[in-house]
C-alpha cells in the first residue's frame, strides 16, 4: 500500500482576498475572471489601491494544487506537497499552514532567500474571482524540489496546470510525470485556469505528453482546449488525452467520465460569494474518495458538496471541521 494517496506539485502562493466592484477592473485595466501574471512593483501598487478602497478581507495560503492537497488531507487522505517558498514572513506563514494540516512537504527551515509568491484575489458581487499574481520564488520551482521517494510511494501524482507558465516549473512537472509513470503511480492534472489554456496550450500539451490517467477542468477550459464551442466535441477531445476526467459546470453541477461511462453530478443550490478554490477543492475531495474505494458517483457527490460550500464562503478552502462534517453526511 502506498504511503501517500496524493503527491502534489504546484505553486505556493499567499492569497490576499478583496471584495471589489466590477467598475474597479475597468478603472485599473484588469481583465475580469482571469489569472494574470504581474511584476512585483505592479502588485505592490495594486495592493495599495485595494487596501485603500476595499480593505483586506482574508489572507490564506493558496496555490491551485495546494488547495487540492489541503482538501484531500482534511478529508483524511495522506498527502505530500512539493513547492517553493522563500525564507521570509510569508514563507513562514505558508509552511506553518502545511504543517498544521499534517501535510508532508519538501519545505523545511533552510529555505532560500527571496520573495514568496503572492496572489491578489479580487471577488466581485457575482462571486467570480479575478487574480493578479506575482510568482516570486515559486517561479523557480524545479526538479530540486521533487522528493522522488515520496513520489514513488504515492498512489497519484497531481500536477497543477499553472506550472506551465514557468519554464523550470513546467520541466519539473514533466519530470514528476516521468518518475510517476516509471513507478506505476497514476497521473492526474488540472488545467487550473482558462488563461493557461488560452495562452499556454502548447506547454500544457507538453506536460500532458502521452496522456494522463485523470484530468480536471471546467467547461470553459475544456472548450478552449478543444478550440470549439461544442461541448460534445470538447468531451471527445479530452478522451484523447485522458483516460478519465471530471469537468465542473458551475451551477449545472459536473460531468465525470470514468473511462467507460459518463456520469452526471447534480449541483447544490447555494448563494455564491467567492469562487476562488472551488475547482481545486472539487479535485481534492474527488481524489480522496476514489483513493478510498468510493464509486465515481459518490466521489462526485462529495466533491460537488465540498465545492458548493467553498463558493459560499470567502477564501480558497473550508475549516478542517467543515470537511469532516460534510464527509460524515455524504459517505
Compose a concise summary of this entry.
With 331 residues, the protein is α/β, with parallel strands linked by helices.
Q: What is the name of the CATH class?
A: Alpha Beta
C-alpha-based Rg, rounded: 18 Å
The low-pLDDT segments are none
Mean pLDDT: 95
| Corresponding CATH superfamily | Ribokinase
CATH architecture: 3-Layer(aba) Sandwich
Strand content: 15-25%
User: What is the molecular shape?
Assistant: globular
- Count of DSSP-assigned helices: 13
Main β-sheet: number of strands, strand sense, barrel status? 9 strands, mixed
Features:
alpha/beta, UDP-N-acetylmuramoyl-L-alanine:D-glutamate ligase, 13 helices
Description:
- With 331 residues, the protein is α/β, with parallel strands linked by helices.
- The protein has one domain (4-330): UDP-N-acetylmuramoyl-L-alanine:D-glutamate ligase, CATH 3.40.1190.
- Helices cover 41% and strands 21% of the residues.
- It has helices at 22-28, 40-53, 64-75, 89-101, 148-152, 167-182, 194-199, 201-208, 219-225, 231-238, 278-291, 296-311, 320-330, and strands at 4-9, 13-19, 35-37, 58-62, 79-82, 104-105, 117-123, 129-134, 154-160, 186-190, 214-218, 245-248, 254-257, 262-265.
- The strands form two sheets. The chain has a nine-stranded mixed beta sheet, sandwiched between helices.
- Strand 9 (154-160), helix 6 (167-182) and strand 10 (186-190) form a beta-alpha-beta unit.
- Helix 9 (219-225) crosses helix 10 (231-238), helix 11 (278-291) packs antiparallel against helix 12 (296-311) and helix 12 runs antiparallel to helix 13 (320-330).
- The longest helix has 16 residues, at 167-182.
- The radius of gyration is 18 Å and the shape is globular.
- The two termini are 22 Å apart.
